[in-house]
Amino acid sequence: MKVYFEDQYYIAVEKPAKKFIRPMPGERESKDCLLFDVRDHLESKIYPVHRLDRAVSGIVIFAKTPKAATKAQEIWNKKTTHKKYLCLNRGKIEKSGVYDVTLSKSGVSQSDIKKEIKQEALTLYNPIEYFHHEFCTYTEVEIKTGRFHQIRRHFRKDIKPLIGDRKHGKGKVNNHFADNYGMNRIFLHCHELEFNHPYTGELILLNSPLPDVLNNVILKLRVNN
């Protein structure tokens, strides 16, 4: 297990793709989760500060006490906290931009009738490199809110789905990248977290390199471009 940061309050580790953060009801595979790995490493209880989708890799922070978790969650969506991802999009993204588009959330009323709830969602994106022969763009993304599948859903709405996204993406494109680039996962990685420590005020900057399987895709795209 790769540890990026640890003190008396928090520990930040790398989450591999396809691994659950915590046990999920009805999901047998979720018992092999990151929370248990970190708990066993520390030999003490720990508490997730935030989440990453199972399919996504990158930095995850756990608190060592419930109070520490609460204090971290209070600053998680502040302007001084930065959560950045690297992704590969289908289509050409020519310039930086912002998705300030509400996303729906399924809720249940008192009468148990499902209704649609709209939540504010803010995603900033910046193209890094365009690969014309595969019609795709390597992109850095920063989220200022934490909605379910936020990055994936915002890009899907703009018809620039993430490559490897089996839920919101394009099956034919995903299969092409699996067959020709050996990429059997979503191209989405949380590579940078920056925040002020909730207890000390110290600026914490954490960086996680792109996993080999994703980095190899970029290298091959550059060779063929």
Task: Label the CATH architecture.
Answer: 2-Layer Sandwich
Largest sheet, strands/sense/barrel: 10 strands, mixed
Q: How many structural domains in the coordinates?
A: 1
In the predicted model, the low-confidence regions spanning at least 5 consecutive residues are: 107-113
Mean pLDDT: 91
Name of the CATH class? Alpha Beta
Features:
225 residues; 10-stranded mixed beta sheet; two-stranded antiparallel ribbon; 12 strands; globular
Description:
With 225 residues, the protein is an alpha+beta fold. It has a single domain (3-224), classed as Pseudouridine synthase (2-Layer Sandwich). Helix content is 23%, strand content 34%. The strands form 2 sheets. Strands 1, 2, 3, 4, 5, 6, 9, 10, 11 and 12 form a 10-stranded mixed sheet that branches. Strands 7-8 form a two-stranded antiparallel ribbon. It is globular. The two termini are 35 Å apart. The model is unreliable at 107-113 (pLDDT under 50).
Q: What is the strand and helix layout of this fold?
A:
Blueprint: E1 3-6, E2 10-15, H1 34-42, E3 47-48, E4 57-63, H2 66-75, E5 82-90, E6 97-100, E7 103-108, E8 114-119, E9 122-131, E10 136-143, H3 150-157, H4 171-181, E11 188-196, E12 203-207, H5 212-224
Parallel strand pairs: 4-11
Antiparallel strand pairs: 1-2, 2-4, 3-4, 5-10, 5-11, 6-9, 7-8, 9-10, 11-12
